Amino acid sequence: MVNAPVLGAVVFAGGRGSRFGGVDKAALELGGVPLVERAVAAAEQAGVDAPIVVGPPGAAPARCTTVREQPPYSGPLAALAAALAVLPPDADEVLLLACDLVRPDEVVARLRASAPSNDEDGVLLRDPDGRAQWLAGRYRVAALRDAVAALGGDVAGRPLRRVMNALRLRPLDASAETVADIDTPEDLERARRTTRPADPANTGAYPETERAPGGAMTQSHHLPPEALDAWLVAAAAELGVEPDAVRIGTVLDVARDVAHDVARPAAPLSTFLLGVAYGRAGAADPDRLQDLADRLTERAAAWKDDRDASQ
């Protein structure tokens, strides 16, 4: 029986963000989730235990290994060399992923389904115009190490193709939508129009993140609505509230819609206000809760429309 190769992953998040006014592009949100988190989560869904993120301190979720290219902002080839130095020694193959992929889950799914053959050093996606997407690829670690070593340390400011042109790579044709990335504010706006917000109850590809005091992201815990029943009973007993008066899905829907239409920090604030209003209504009535929730959701949608109209 042939053992499956051990897969690692590197997410490249070290750009200056000059087209975004110097804002860290990796921290920009799509569907309510930072771009770097989306790429990391896609790698984790493929079975990677400890993705590596190359970028500034605090750019990556705390569960990841973070490394910085030297000198900073010296390009993807320097970033690759830095990542290879900390890649787990048992990794046979590695996913190289740009942090700004719009659909990192689709990219990783394609790469998982197409392992390099014995006479190949890797596979990578190719867009409809025939352009190789180096940072949407799956490569043999040994081949990458050899190609980088052959440069003798001359990696700062050098193009990634200096390594890639030395490898035996098989392109995988992909749609423009699959390989789309975010290079400009217009790309971001376009992606946001077609990306659903992350569901606060979602346990899948994109876990919720929050900033720790030092600025690094940490992962919170997620449960689907049906698994929250036990917590609802415990919390309601602690507060002297009747749990049957609360519809979990209604509250989570408000949190999701407000996070999308207003801002993520507005979600817990709004659900607290929902609870206050519900308590003031007197008798516990789930239909009354739904009515209040609908009003909040409609107000959030109007808030978004007013904000968009003023821009």
From TrEMBL:
Q: What is this protein called?
A: Molybdopterin-guanine dinucleotide biosynthesis protein A
Q: Where is this region: Disordered?
A: 188-222
**Domain MobA-like NTP transferase, residue spans:** 9-162
Keywords assigned by UniProt, alphabetized: Transferase
Ranges for domain DUF6457 come to 224-307
Q: Does the keyword Metal-binding apply?
A: no
- Keyword Transferase assigned: yes
What SUPFAM superfamilies does its record include?
Answer: Nucleotide-diphospho-sugar transferases
Query: What Gene Ontology molecular function terms does this protein carry?
Result: nucleotidyltransferase activity
> What's a Pfam family in this record?
NTP_transf_3
What is the organism field in this record?
Answer: Leucobacter chromiiresistens
